[in-house]
Give the backbone structure.
Amino acid sequence: MTDFFEGIDPIRYEGPGSENDLAFRHYNPDEVVMGKPMKDHLRFAVAYWHSFAWEGGDPFGGQTFLRPWHPQDSMETARIKADAAFEMFRILGVPFFCWHDADIRPEGENFAESKARLDEMIDYFGVKMEDTGVGLLWGTANMFSHRRWMSGAATNPDPDVFAYAGATVKACLDATHRLGGQNYVLWGGREGYETLLNTDLKRERQQAGRFLQMVVDYKERIGFQGTILIEPKPQEPSKHQYDYDVATVYGFLRDFDLTDHVKLNIEQGHAILAGHSFEHELALAASLGVLGSIDMNRNDYQSGWDTDQFPNNTPEVALAYYEILKAGGFTTGGTNFDAKLRRQSLDPEDLIAAHVGGMDVCAAGLKAAAAMLEDGKLEALRAERYAGWDSEDAQALLHHATLEQCEECVIERDIRPEPRSGKQERLENLVNRYL
């Protein structure tokens, strides 16, 4: 057991007027939004790695956090870490958490020892999950931190590393299945390249495709009912990564006949690094039928790297949940806080406050998004802009016409198109009414 969070009571909803730093102002789990409780829309999860495994380092400095489970090099400290984690889940009232294998067990001398340690911790987690009612949103494998992964996992030029990656994912997918996980995520932390001078792009992409096919085949053989997810990321630590953004990953899935088997876990910070907005990536994934789950965080827009900060921008979050709600909401997916404290935020209370604030921002964004969708004005104005395509002639033009027929139509009807306003400012003003 641990007394890491001693003196911190479970977080309660106190309403917008509350001055309590450790209370929800907007997140009322049982409040009904668009026909179901807010908690069932948001499906919050805590990231085990940032909240408990991260030690507070950055590219210019080492550990700043001193936790009771440091150093993270024994099964005893792994259990202490788990005790603290499940205590925090209880305090926050979150329904889910997420993990990498390396977060929850110390590395062994070889694969067999690492797997045995993982299995032992999965047993420990199983008891705690049964006691608390907290579920597993998803599990994944850390195939980027250890030096063996320095040239990638599935895309590595060494077939021994490819085999080690396959064994690692099998162990993690088995563990996720045992815990009733609702998804399994493949995050290609180093599936990319530093220079083309030593890289065979075609070969590495084929390796990645074959590896994912193996994962899907194994999922079906063991009867795992969850969703396989890929998380797009454009860069950092690699110069270029093969899962750059939603469009890139979708093309990859099409090439390897996996669009019916794999969906995407989309992160706000990664969308920004790819030069997109979060809502763009969500809307595109939804339109392609591959929207699965999200990692909710933000980047510092003055930094060109993945700073993984807790969300605090309600307008941005509202637009994200608008796309999610419009697509029908989550099924197996949810809102994972892939976010970490700043390395100067040392106290246990800081970890609770960060999640409370993030959950409130998401709740406020969700309510604004639901209000926009239920009101219907934004969708009505969008439909009005494309209304010309609803006629039979326009549909015939789109689906059956040739270029010769386009020319004939323009000449016969003496078509002289006049531009029409896109009304962007009016729409931006409309959105702001709900925030």
Observations:
- The domain at 32-375 is CATH 3.20.20.150 (TIM Barrel).
- The mean pLDDT is 96.
- The CA atoms of residues 291 and 415 lie 40 Å apart.
- The radius of gyration is 24 Å.
